[in-house]
Structure formats: structure tokens, C-alpha cells
Amino acid sequence: MKNIINLVSRYWRRRSLGLFIIRIVTGSVFFAHGWDKINNTAMVSGMLMHMGVVAPEFFGPFIAWLEVVGGIALILGVLPRIFGAMLGIEMLLAIYLSGVGGGFHKHELELMLMASSFGIALVGSGWISLFRMECTDCGGMICKPGDDCPKHP
């Protein structure tokens, strides 16, 4: 029984499985919200114009497509560090533009999405992804074994 418990606990302790779950959930939320924005680009552009954003006709659709494409990319693990950083910056700007004086409860979703996006940008995708950007040994971005990886001779 002890061996079975150890085997199961070692399996569930895998960093990549946890990152995969975070990527799936974060990407799904961004995809769903982006899809709603694509179907209502006039509303999004009007909201941005009301907030004082320059060129809301450009940024409304841009934000919508960033969330859809970025959400899919996070789910699949394609360029997760790049899309994680872009989506995290978007959430930071969303918090700023909607007013930081509203308190914590006003920005709970944006804070969670920002934190998970920046976390993905910092840590990477793990091994469960279509395009892993980090070295499996040292964690460096697009590290080549033998050339610039400190763990390879």
C-alpha cells in the first residue's frame, strides 16, 4: 500500500501537469471572454472610447483577437511565454483603465488572470505542450544542448 501511495503522490507532484491545468483554465477563460468581445466589437470599442483610450476602433478588435488567439495558444502550449506576457500586460492595463480605486473585489478576475498569465510567462509551458520554449534540463528559453546549456557538457 505504501508503494502505491508513493507512486500516486509522485505522479501528481509533477510540475508540468500543474502548469498544464493552469494553462487550460487560463486559456479557456481568455478564449471565452475574447469570443464575446469579437461578437461585440462595437461595444468594446465604445467602452474603450469612454475610458479615454486612443484609437478604440483599433484596440477593441485587437484585444478581442489577442484573447482568442492567446487563449488557444495557452491551451495548446504554443509560445506560452510570449502570449502569457502579452495577456498579463493586457490585464494590468484593464485594471488601470477601469480604475484602481475600486478595491480588490472589483478586480478579482483580472488579478487572477494577470497572475496566472505572468506565471506562465515566467515558468513556461512544461512538457505537455505543442511548442515547448524551455530547455528540459536548465529551463532556459530555446536552449540548445551542448551549445549554451549550462547543464550539458
Helix-strand layout with pairing:
Layout: H1 2-12, H2 15-38, H3 41-50, H4 56-76, H5 80-98, H6 108-123
Helix pairs in contact: 2-4, 2-6, 3-4, 4-5, 5-6
Quick synopsis:
The chain has helices at residues 2-12, 15-38, 41-50, 56-76, 80-98, 108-123.
Distance between the termini: 41 Å
What's the rounded overall pLDDT mean? 86
Poorly predicted regions are none
Secondary structural class: mainly alpha
Number of helix segments? 6
Silhouette: elongated
Order of helices and strands: HHHHHH
| Helix coverage percent | 55-70%
Largest sheet: none
Q: Over all CA atoms, what is the radius of gyration?
A: 19 Å
Strand content: under 5%
Number of strands: 0
Characterise this structure:
- By secondary structure, the chain is mainly α.
- The protein has 6 helices and no strands.
- The chain has helices spanning 2-12, 15-38, 41-50, 56-76, 80-98, 108-123.
- Helix 2 packs antiparallel against helix 4 (56-76), helix 3 packs across helix 4 (56-76) and helix 5 (80-98) packs antiparallel against helix 6 (108-123).
- The longest helix has 24 residues, at 15-38.
- It is elongated, with a radius of gyration of 19 Å.
- The termini are far apart.
